[in-house]
Amino acid sequence: MHPGVFGEPTVAGAFADDAYATAKGFVRTRVLHRQLLEHLPAPPAALLDVGGGAGHQSLPLAEIGYHVTLLDPSPVMLDKARERVARLAPAARERVELIEAPGESAGAATGGRLFDGVLCHGVLGYLDRPDPMVAELCRLAAPGGIVSIMTGNAATMALRPALEGRWGDALAAFDSDREIGVLGVPARADTVESLSSFLRAGGVEPVARYGVWLFVDLLEFGRAPDDSALNDPAQWPAIAEVEFEAGRRDPYRQLSRVFHLIGRKA
Ligand SMILES: C[S@@+](CC[C@H](N)C(=O)[O-])C[C@H]1O[C@@H](n2cnc3c(N)ncnc32)[C@H](O)[C@@H]1O
What topology is assigned to 4-265 in CATH? Predict the structure, then answer.
């Protein structure tokens, strides 16, 4: 098994340690969490976090009573997850299981179990193509269970280069689904429509589509004169409230550089 770029400590650290220590990292976790709770059954229920990395999204779910299986092919990311699990309260710690495996073979790695929620956040963009992974996510969902995918939005690729004043890149981005992402590694984006059709092919009906963050990107990439809110953790909960509302309303949710798509297995 090849762990990919997240097997490299610099990339793993840039994501799990650095990105999550920012306003955007705070908003990402907080907003996704609230969106997920609108669809997940009440705890205790069994969740599988495919490409779960250091567990920033799923360990808070273990803390509120869910049973979490976190699967990832990168030993470096799993070490970070292990450190974070060790800091949980004992009862929550017992609800977490870590498995080293790629998501495409998650079914075999988890022994054929089915899950009430299958999460896959920030993973598809690092794969050559999304459909084999989406098919596996659908297979792993129990009847009535949800599949939650968060990934780059191919419809908003021009936003970042335009805000950064890279006009040539911005023009090319309208017809591209690839970029060098904020972690400095190549990343691919998808559309809500294409992932929705892959979900339907797997017997999962899309039920909700959200944006996850918007205003933090406008502030960060646009170099707003007063971006002090991004550097003041005391303001991050208020930003997350605003982003949560924007993430569920048009036109804001359509402008987010990522989307969160939730489907329910028949
Ligand atoms: C950007 S991180 C996201 C981590 C986590 N889902 C989160 O939202 O915090 C991408 C993760 O995808 C994992 N990954 C890469 N290729 C994968 C694959 N084929 N199957 C499962 N996970 C994979 C990486 O090891 C890394 O932990």
Answer: Rossmann fold (3.40.50)
